[in-house]
Specification:
mainly alpha; about 70 residues; single chain; flat
Length: about 70
């Protein structure tokens, strides 16, 4: 009984994570293709969801706040 609840919770968390990834990846693709492709020379259009997802992950790693403050 408890194993079924834990397993369903894990599956639910995975589905929510996939949904959040899709929710954030498509606006990245639309903004990249709509804004940057025409303005910056040498930038290609994003053609798949996985390219947008990869750019989103890369930017989140590069621009994540470190949590260190210089007070």
């Amino acid at each position: 009984m408890k194993l079924g609840i834990i397993l369903s919770a894990i599956v639910g968390i995975i589905l929510v994570a996939i949904g959040i990834g899709i929710l954030f990846a498509f606006p990245v693709m639309w903004l990249w293709n709509g804004c940057l492709v025409g303005l910056v020379t040498g930038i290609n259009q994003i053609t798949s969801f996985w390219q947008a997802f990869g750019i989103m992950v890369l930017f989140s790693l590069l621009f994540k706040p470190s949590g260190i403050s210089n007070k």
